[in-house]
Design goal:
The complex is a heterodimer of chains A (109) and B (119). Chain A is mainly beta. Chain A is 0% helix and 58% strand. Chain B is mostly beta strands. The chains are: A mainly beta (109), B mainly beta (119). The interface between A and B is medium-sized, with 27 and 28 residues.
Amino acid sequence: GEDVEQSLFLSVREGDSSVINCTYTDSSSTYLYWYKQEPGAGLQLLTYIFSNMDMKQDQRLTVLLNKKDKHLSLRIADTQTGDSAIYFCAESISDDMRFGAGTRLTVKP
Amino acid sequence: EAGVVQSPRYKIIEKKQPVAFWCNPISGHNTLYWYRQNLGQGPELLIRYENEEAVDDSQLPKDRFSAERLKGVDSTLKIQPAELGDSAVYLCASSLVGTSGGSSYNEQFFGPGTRLTVL
């Protein structure tokens, strides 16, 4: 079946902006989520966006949604070393969620 | 407030042995999920409970996997017998959402997972 797709790796310098992209599968998904996973830990919800919005900003995080192309992005401004982690996008499918494979963000000092 | 608790954190077993994982969700959360996360992949749903009822177990390999959530609180996931391909991280999550469909905001809170290695 179709997969939620993300690029696997992203490397940025501390202080730069990071943009993580995601293509999801179901145009009827009502909510789309971004989760962060640090080594040895479970997933932590970072932010989400409702499908009738095209942008949401939350401090250093900006989510952009293009429903026509089923494209979701997460921008992290002023990226810090503590932002190094794996970032998963997820779409809501009925009562369940479908996750991408995750993008490993590496922040270099 | 305590988060989702899972135990053990790590488990190493030989193939064909049984193994069990335990999860205690956040107090008051009626929905509990078990996911499997293979290396380099996102979580994949195995089973979802609403209270004590398994409402979605379509992805659970029923020949060797079983789960229960007696009393609608904590849950156990079992594999018997384990195979080499079962090596993964098993994540438990909980949420407050019910059967209102994908139109509801559904924040799932994840535990740290159990890393299973089958030798």
